[in-house]
Design brief:
The chain has one domain. It has a four-stranded mixed β-sheet, with no helix packed on it. Helix content is 0%, strand content 46%. By secondary structure, it is an all-beta fold.
């Protein structure tokens, strides 16, 4: 799932669905999610994220 990262307009966030907590469901478009950065690539501004939780805006 691709996510927008607040404060970093050029970044492309990729939240790995396989790393979501078992009790979690996929957030709806427009929901706010919280995650932990697992890695990044400077050359293309990609950020790999493990979701921690989500909440509606």
């Amino acid at each position: 799932m691709f996510v927008r990262i607040d404060g970093v307009p050029d970044a492309v966030g990729l939240a790995e669905v396989t790393s979501m907590p078992r009790e979690a469901s996929l957030p709806a478009a427009g929901d706010t999610v919280v995650g932990e950065v697992m890695g990044h690539a400077d050359h293309n501004h990609q950020v790999r994220i493990r979701l921690v939780s989500s909440r509606e805006p």
